[in-house]
Amino acid sequence: MMKNFVLTALILALLFNGWLVAYFAVPNYLELIAVGLLSLVFMSILSERYIFLYAITMVLLYGAYLTVTSFGQSLPEGMQVQYMYSHLLFTSFHLIFWMLMNAVKKIGYQNSDLQHQVQLLQKYRQGTQILTLTEFKDQAEWLLKSTARNGKESYFLKIEVDSSKKRTKQNLQEMLEKAALQSIRQKYDLVSSELGTIYFLLKDTHQEGADIVMERFREKSQAELNFITPPYRFEQVHIKDAQQLNELLGARS
User: Is the pLDDT of residue 75 over 80?
Assistant: First the structure.
């Protein structure tokens, strides 16, 4: 509620400021409005760190212009007062818009943080039974510790989709993910993915078991895609701990 009030107040103050410039027809008010509109554009696209610097620079430049004009032309006192009003309105306009931009960007950052937190809390990718990478890593850590305690083995499989076109790769991956889920032991093995790559973690198995899963995946994907040459490459690794998993995931982790 407070955020909405602040944004509304700043927008109204900005509009009121512009109305005052036009209503009182301060010196060079048309040029002032034009510069103000350009400032709206520039301050909207500038990096956050430069917005205040831009606003202060414009205020100082306009103040210097009015000062030189006032003393250079020996303007009467009444006109100098008008120049003071003009500079005051110009300054307030830029400062109000700077505060508005800060408020908007702050809300944007907060929304991004919330979206990131939601993604971290999500267990599965939306609309699928594919684990998010965060959940995959969390479950994998527990799974690998359990495997080590029981003196058994786990295997990591990585499927890389072969396609240079993003849309084609995405369509292929959706079908291969379906095949992956049909190839594992449900609620026992783990599957995760990101664009172009699918990850398996097979619990309490051995080389032959990993080969069986891979062969099952080939059969399921063949049924889905009916390919001659498999549109993917795979890697199979005997995995021992979470550190090794992070290394295998590399930059994607």
Answer: no
